[in-house]
Amino acid sequence: MQFDRMRPHQIAEAIIAGTPVVLPIGVMEYHGQHLPAGVDLLIVTETLKRLGDRIIMLPPFAYGAASHAVAGAGQGTLHLDPATFLPLAEALFSALLTTGFRNLHGVIHHQTENFAQGMPTDLSFRLAARNAIFRHLEVARGPGWWGDRAMQDYYADAAAGEDPFNWIRIHPLFPKGADFPFDHAGVGETALMLALAPETVDMTRATDGGHWYTETAPQATAALGEAGVALALAHIAPALGLA
Questions:
Q1: In what order do the strands lie in the sheet with 21-25?
Q2: Do residues 189 and 39 lie in contact, with contact meaning Cβ atoms separated by under 8 Å?
Q3: ∠ CA(215), CA(221), CA(225), 5° rounding?
Q4: Which residues contact 92 (CB under 8 A, 6 or more apart)?
Q5: 112-167: per-residue pLDDT in tens?
Q6: What is the pLDDT of residues 79-89, one digit of tens each?
Q7: Cβ–Cβ < 8 Å for 27, 64
Q8: Which of 7, 12, 22, 134 is least crowded, fewest Cβ atoms below 10 Å from its Cβ?
Q9: For residues 80 and 62, what is the distance between their CA atoms, to the nearest angstrom?
Q10: pLDDT confidence of residue 157
Q11: Spatial separation of the C-alpha atoms in residues 229 and 209, rounded to whole Å
């Protein structure tokens, strides 16, 4: 389901049912001459679409911290300083909590090879999620809410999955150590795009530009991409609480 197409009664029913609400997070970044600027976002959105009505997909956030490390200006990279979108992310999460959602997720593919340490875009959304939860709890339960005796079962409840800090979680699209090429515009991402958005790929330009990171791109196939999508779904569906 797409959030922007849902009517009030559908939203209310989804809140009661605890349907996962998912924000695709991406950047606009140069990915060689054969791929579009929105690779990192499209890989997330097109993969999530395969979950159908099992999730609610929010309009995606497309303008993260891409940096100009890959290519300079004029190549399609749109870099935003994380400080500019951190308040927006926090406000969005706060609005979703106020609406009543308690099963919120962000999914990102950009720079997630070391997700445990984090990179600017995912770290901004992770911090925004924590800030929004802390603020919501203090408004709803008052100062000192955690130290109140009513919270004496907090650790036991958290172990059972009833932790308010799990109301919003940020996930990489692929699990750490996935048996799939993780690269930038090489065989891995090119294969994913051939499977998910083939109309955006021009393989005749795969070797243009003389980039080291695109040298493996000609090896990409849609079949390899589909295998990658299957790995991503096997990881992300359980992360969203789907069987």
A1: 56-57, 21-25, 104-108, 168-172
A2: yes
A3: 105
A4: 23, 128
A5: 999 999 999 999 999 999 999 999 999 999 999 999 998 999 898 888 778 999 99
A6: 999 999 999 99
A7: yes
A8: 7
A9: 10
A10: 85
A11: 27
Alpha-helix residue ranges (DSSP H) falling in the chain: 8-17, 39-49, 82-99, 120-141, 154-159, 187-196, 222-239
Place of tokens 């929010």: 58
Structure tokens at 74: 């004029």
Q: How far is CA 41 from its chain centroid?
A: 8
> If you average pLDDT over every residue of the chain, what do you get?
96
Question: In Å, how far are 19, 20, 21, 69, 208 from 15, measured between CA atoms?
Answer: 7, 9, 9, 41, 49
Do 232 and 203 contact (CB within 8 A), yes or no? no
Side-chain half-sphere CA neighbours of 226 within 13 A: 3
CATH superfamily of domain region 3-239: Creatininase (3.40.50.10310)
Which DSSP letter does residue 2 get? B
Query: Measuring CA to CA, how many Å separate 26 from each of 13, 164, 206?
Result: 29, 26, 22
Nearest CA to 25 out of 52, 3, 69, 58 is that of 58
Which region holds residue 183: left if phi is over 0, alpha if psi is between -120 and 50, else beta? beta
Token digits for 105?
């997720």
Query: Largest Cα–Cα distance of the chain, in whole Å?
Result: 66
If pLDDT is split at 50, 70 and 90, which confidence band does 183 have?
A: very high
- The CA distances from residue 153 to 161, 169, 243, in Å, are 12, 22, 28
Cα(2)–Cα(73) distance, integer angstroms: 34
Q: pTM value? A: 0.96
